[in-house]
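Ticket #4471: structure output looks truncated?

Reporter: J.K.
Steps to reproduce: submitted the chain below (277 residues) through the standard prediction queue, then opened the result file.
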Amino acid sequence: MLSILLPTDFSENSKNAITYALELYKNEDCKFHFLHCYPPVIFSYEYQIEKGLIGKDIHKILQEESKERLYEFALSLMRKHGMEQEFEVEVVKGFLPDRISRAVSDNNIDLIVMGTKGETDSDRVIFGSNTTQIINKRCCPVIAVPDDYKFAGLENILFPSDLNLAFKHKHFQPILKILELHKSNIKVLHISMQELTSLQKIHKEFIKETFTDYKTTYDILEEKNIADVVYDYQQEHKSELLVMINNKHSFFENLFFKPTTSKIAMHLQTPFMVIPA
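Returned output as attached by the reporter:
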């Protein structure tokens, strides 16, 4: 059974990402874990008197109220989308990036689905601060969903790679699951100004072997501006999911985690799956 973590702060951004996850895995045997983190707070003495909180465990009250709200939030979305899978809710004190690794470990999470950015994050970055920190923890695959993206089927998956990573079967399990669920096509894109090295050829053959049971296309483009090429290719070939493997010091990290004026940073409106190496 697939275990999917759905962080939420009850914003429209997180609600949209959760809706995407429910539609994407609607026909999969899975369990959804709804997670809400509330920050530590200190109330003034005057406020505690006004609200009748003197002598009470304020954080316990906050946690119970948040858990009730989260349960109603989750139940409403599950019913709205006709979901029959099991779900559970968890409320913890702290900040999401600090609590995510434990949530993944405690619940045997296979995938996190969340929004690309919070409401206060800059438009000049693809990922907001929380999403960036969680992806960089590399504890679990993440699908980051743009604010206004609506799921309408998944015909094509785009997988750009520099072919420098020694791939393992575990890297492709999240992709294979989606290919199986939605009968999607997989498009493998390599961008380089040089011919493939012997190692890159080996890695390419590994990819071919992995996707042998699925409709797969391979393209090699000779360009310098990788970010813009990925964006243009995605637009031309109408891919509904962009997938990349996040290896430390990889071209992925340099392209997608820094402020940039590239097309992909300014205009990308496609869900993005990031798989830790």
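Triage note (M.O.): checked the attachment and the full token line is present. The first strand starts at residue 2 and ends at 7.
Status: closed, working as intended.
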